[in-house]
Amino acid sequence: MNFFKSFLASILGTFVALGLLIIFFFMGVAAIATSVNLEKVDSVFVNENSILNLNLNTSVRDRSPAFNPLQFLSQKGPSIVGMDVIIGSINKSKKDPKIKGIRLDSGLISSGWAQAREIRNCLNEFKKSGKFIYAYADFMSQKGYYLSSVADSIFMNPMGAMELKGLSSEVLYYDGFQNQYGVKMEVIRHGKYKSAVEPFLQDKMSKENRTQIKGLLDAVWMTVSDEIAESRAISKNALETMVNELTVTDAEEALAKGMIDALVYEGEFENSIKTALEIDEDNSINSVEFYQMNTQIKAYDSNVKDRIAVIYANGPILYTEGTEEVIGKKALNQTFEDILENKNIKGAVLRIDSPGGDAMTSEIILNAMRVLKGEKPLVISMGNIAASGGYYIACLGDKIYADPMTITGSIGVLAAFPNMKGLADRIGIDAEQVNSHKNAMGYSIFEPLSDGFKNSTKGAIEKIYTTFKSRVAEGRSLDMEKVEDLAQGRLWSGKDALENGLVDALGGLEDAIEAVAEMAAIENFNVVDYPKFEDNFEGMFLNALSFARLKIFNHPIEKFASEFIELSQLEGIQARIPFSINIE
Question: Which end of the chain is more exposed for a tag (fewer CB within 10 A), N or C?
C-alpha cells in the first residue's frame, strides 16, 4: 500500500512540476514576444520595390486577439487576425512609396460578410493610389471570390475550384428530437419574429422567420452581386444566369465566363508579379507580411496628443466582467470612465459585433454610455452583427454606421428554460418538492413551468420589451408606434435598417472614426483601443483553447449540443438572437 501511495505521489509531483514549467515557459515567451512584436510593428524593414503579402485564408475578428504562445511559436503566421491589423497594413502600404502593390490570397477567408466588404472597400481605396492588386487562389469560396474580385487581375490554379451559387442559411429544428428523448427547452418570448428559440419550439420554420431570413439573404446578395458585376465589368443578368445555372464551378469555367483573368500555377503567378514590379524573373520578390506592418487602423504619431478611442464590444452580452470574446458590464463601464477622465481622448467609437444577450447588462451598459455621450461624441460602428442586445447598446449613439450586410434590429425579448422531466421519467428519476407557498419553488429543470412562474416571467418580459422600445424611440427620435412596427424581434440588414431609420449611414469603422473627428473638431489624432485587458497566463491559455475549439469542433451534433447548453446557461431575461445565424 505504501508503495502505491509513493508511486501516485511521484506521478502527481511530476505533473505539478511539468505544469509549473509550462506556465513559466509561456510567461517567458509572452514577455519576449511582446517586445519582439512591438519592434516589428514600429520598425519593420521594407525594401525598395516591395509588395504587401495579404494572405487572408484565416479567421478574421474585429480586434486582434491577445498574445497566443501557440501562434507565436508557429512559423505560419497568425491563425486569427483582427480587422485592425488588416486595414492598418493596407492603409500603411498605400502611403509607403516602397510598396508597389498587394498580393492577395483570400480564396478561403473565414469572416463575416460585413468584414469582407470592409476589407474590400479598403482595398478599393488602395487601388486609387495607382498601385496594383493581384489575387491568386487554388480554391475560391464565394466570399473569397467576392473579396478577390476587387483585384486588378485574378489568377487561379488550372485545377482550381470556384463556388458561385448564391446565398443560403440553414436552421436545424429539434422538436422531434426533444419529444423522442425527453429533453426540451421551455420558452417565453415577445415578438413574432423572435426566432432565437424557434428551433426548440417546432419542427418547421415559421412564415415570419422565413420572411426575415429571405429578406436578409436578398439584401446581402444584392450588394455582393452589384459589386462583383461592377468590378468584373459583366452584366447583372449574366451573373445571375451563372449563379442560377451553376455554370461556374471550376477555374476553366471561371476564365471562360470572364470571372478570372488567367490559369497559372503559383510559380507563373510569381512571374506576373515580377513583371508588374519590372524586375527580372531570376530575381526574388521583396515582400512584407501584412501582420508585420501595423497593428492599428491609423498609424500612431507620438507628437499628436488628441485621441479617438475605439471601444470593441465583441461576443454575447453576459452579466459578467467581460473578456475579449464576451461583452460584460465591468469591462465596458470601466472603459467609459477611463475615456471620460482622459482629457486627450476627444471622442469614441463603439464597434459592436454581438448577437445580444442579457437584458439587464445591456441596460447597465447603455446607462453608462449615456453619461459618456453627454460629455464627448460617441458614434456606433456595427460589424457583422449588432442585433437584439447588440442593438440595445447601440441605439443611443450620436450617429450609427452599419454595413449594408450587417445583421441588426431584432428588437424583442425572450427567456428560455431547459426541461428534462421526460428524460428523468424514462430513466427512473423522481423529483419531489416541499414548498412553504405554491410558487416558492420557482423553476426546476425536472418540472414543467408552473403558471405562477410563467406569468411572472411574462410580466418581466413585457416590461423589458417596453423599456427596449422606449430606448430605441429616444435614441432614434421615433414614436413608439413606429418602433413597434420595426420591432417584434425582426432582423434587418444594414441597408434596410438605413431605410427604416434604425441607423444613420452606411459605412465601416474608418467612417465612424472620421465622423467622431468631425464632431470633435479635430484633424490630427491618434486611435487608441479599448477595453484594456491585462495579459496573463489564464487569458493566454483560454485564447489557445478558443483557437483549438475553432479548429476541432465543427459538426452538426456539436451545433445542437452547444445551442442547448448555451440557452441552458443563460440567466435572466434575454435580448438576443441565435449564435448560429450564418449566411453562406
Answer: N
